[in-house]
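EI: anyone free to look at a 83-residue chain?
SC: sure, send it
EI:
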Amino acid sequence: MKILYFAWLRSKLGMAEETITLPSDVTTLYQLVGHLKSRGPAFAEVFDDLDVIRIAVDQEYVTTDIPLADASEIAFFPPVTGG
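SC: here you go
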């Protein structure tokens, strides 16, 4: 699965993207976030407050926990603000 990180998430994690193999016990979006948080302090900090992160699964915005069985790409980014 391809994971994309944008804006301040990319800066804090030091990478724009990565490809991971999901552990067998990670089957939903929120389980994926939990798995990522367990990877170290930077990940724990970035994913501490999901209210400040938007998530897209295969280029479709999602707002709830969903199964990841057929997903190939997850993107994490801050909400867009305008002036």
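EI: Helices lie at 8-13, 29-37, 41-46.
SC: 👍
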